[in-house]
Amino acid sequence: MDYNELRHFADSWGLVYLFVIFLAVAVYIFRPGAKQQAIDAAQIPLRDTDERFDSK
User: Fold this and answer.
1) Is residue 32 part of a domain?
2) Distances (CA, A) of 45 to 25, 37, 39, 42, 55
3) Contact of 13 with 19, CB cutoff 8 Å
4) pTM
5) Residue ranges of the alpha helices (H) in the chain?
6) For 31-52, how does the pLDDT look when each residue is reduced to its tens digit (9 = 90+)?
7) For residue 53, what is the DSSP state?
8) How far apart are CA 47 and CA 56, in angstroms?
9) Is the pLDDT of residue 7 over 60?
């Protein structure tokens, strides 16, 4: 397999592969149960659970 064959393979099937990955991520994000997980993940920086900064 030379460079041109590899490039042709990547141009055609690479695009299909990346499109399938994009669709999988989109389905994962927009599934019905994802809203609560997104809200929980958005609140992580605001939680005060780090014991290193608690006054002793």
Assistant:
1) yes
2) 23, 14, 12, 7, 19
3) no
4) 0.57
5) 3-29, 34-42
6) 988 889 889 989 988 887 666 6
7) G
8) 19
9) yes
Domain assignment of residue 33, yes or no: yes
| 3-state SS assignment for residue 47 | coil
In a domain, 2, yes or no: no
For residue 19, give every residue at least 6 positions away whose Cβ sits within 8 Å of its Cβ, in sequence order, or none.
none
User: Which tokens is 23 given?
Assistant: 């669709």
Phi, psi of 55 (to 5 degrees): -75, 140
Q: C-alpha 4: how far from its chain's center?
A: 31
Q: Name the percent of the chain lying above pLDDT 90.
A: 29
Name the domain count of the chain: 1
Residue-number span of the structural domain to which 41 is assigned: 20-46
